[in-house]
Design brief:
It is a single chain. The chain has a 10-stranded mixed sheet with strand order 9-7-5-2-10-1-11-15-19-20, with helices on both faces. Strands 14, 16, 17 and 18 form a 4-stranded mixed sheet that branches. By secondary structure, the chain is of the alpha/beta class. It contains 11 helices and 20 strands. The protein is globular, with a radius of gyration of 22 Å. Helix content is 31%, strand content 20%.
Length: 427
Amino acid sequence: MQTLAIIGSQWGDEGKGKITDLLGAKCDVVVRYQGGNNAGHTIVVDKKKIVLHIIPSGILHPHTTSIIAHGVVFDPDAFKAELADTQKAGINLSFNNLKISENCSVITSYHKLLDQQRESQGPERIGTTGKGIGPCYEDKVARKAIKIKDLFNKETLKSRLQKNLIEKETLFKHLYHSSFPSIEDETSRLFELGKMVRPFACDTFSFLSECISNNKKILFEGAQGVLLDIDYGSYPFVTSSNTSFGGIHTGAGLMGRPVDEVLGITKAYTTRVGEGPFPTELHSEIGKKIQKIGNEFGATTGRIRRCGWLDLPLLHYSIKASNLTSLALTKVDVLSGLSELKICHAYRYRGETIDCAWPGIDMNEVEPIYTDMTPFHDTFKNGVLSTELTSYIKMIEDSLQIPVSIIAYGPERSEIIFTGARNFFLK
C-alpha cells in the first residue's frame, strides 16, 4: 500500500486525529487537502494533549513531512499561534518537515468579520465557527482570493486587498453597520505575517508529484466529515469545502495514481455540532450521559456536540459518496456500561423504508427505525472483545457491507485494536 486517505464519515469530530497520528508514524508524507482552522484534531500522547487545527497530524513524527496543500484556506494568525503551541510542546518545525502551498487562499480579517456578522445578523444560522472559512472560499471561487504568494510583495498584496474589499465594504457599512480594518492596516498585518510563513512556502503540487513517483508512503488527512461536504453534505448546514474523497483530487492532487485505501473514521454513536437536522439525536438522560462520558465538546470552539445513536443510513450514504473501503470505529468505550443500546438501521420516509440517506431527502421528515442491541460492558483489557460488542460490530459490517478494520476505545495512541488483514502501512 502506497496511499491511504482518512475521511470523517459522519458530521466530523469522529476522532480522526488519533488515527491519523498513529498511521502517520508509518508513512513518509501526511497531506491536509481542504478546510482551514475550523477543524480540530485532538491527540493524546502519554497523557499529554495536543490540539492541531491547521498543521497536519504527521508533524508529531520527525521522519514525516507534513503538507498543507492548495485546497486549504490559510489563516496566518492561526498558524502563528499553532506554531508557538507546537514549539512549546517540543516539536521543531522547519521546511524539512512542513511545507505550505504558495497557492493556499488566505483568510483575512475581512473574511472573519463577514462570517461573524452573517452568523449573528443574517436570516439563517448555519452554525459556522466564525473563522472566515466560508467567505474565503467564496473569494476563491469568485477569482479574487489573496494567495499565500501574494503576502510576499507588499504592493501586490495591497492592490489585491483593495479589489477584494470593494463589495465587502458596502456590506460592512450599509448592511451590518460594522467597523472594519483599513487597507493600510490589513496590508501591514498580513505582510508581517507573510515573513513568518515564507520559510515554509513552496510548490507542494510538484513536491507531492515527486513523492508519488518515488513510491513514498502518503496519507491524505481530511478535516470535518462527509456529511459536511459542500456538495455531498446536509446542505445548507455544511462547511465550504469538499471534505469527502473527491477533495483530494482538487485540493492536493494524485498525479494519476489511485488511493489504495479509504478509511472512514466513524464514531460508535453519532454527534453533530451546530445547526441542522439530526435524525437519531437523543434528548434523554442517556444522551446527556453519552455527551458527558464522551467529553463531547468541539476541539476548535468548545461548543457542545449533540449526541445520538449510530445512524447506518447516513453511513451507507457516506460510503457511497466517498468510496470508503473500511471503517475505524472510535470511542467504543463511551457506550460500554449503558443500560440500553440501539442502532438506526433504516428510515421511514414518505411511506417508504430506506436504508441509505440519499441526496434530496428532507432529513427533518425521516423517522429512524431502530434495532435494539444487547448492551456491552467491555473493559478492553488484553484486546479481547465481548460477545455483545462483537455483535454490535457485526451488525454494522453486515448492514453496510464494509469491514470495521480498527477499533479505538480511548484517547491514547495505545488504546486501539487492529482487526482483519488490512495493511495500513503497518507491515
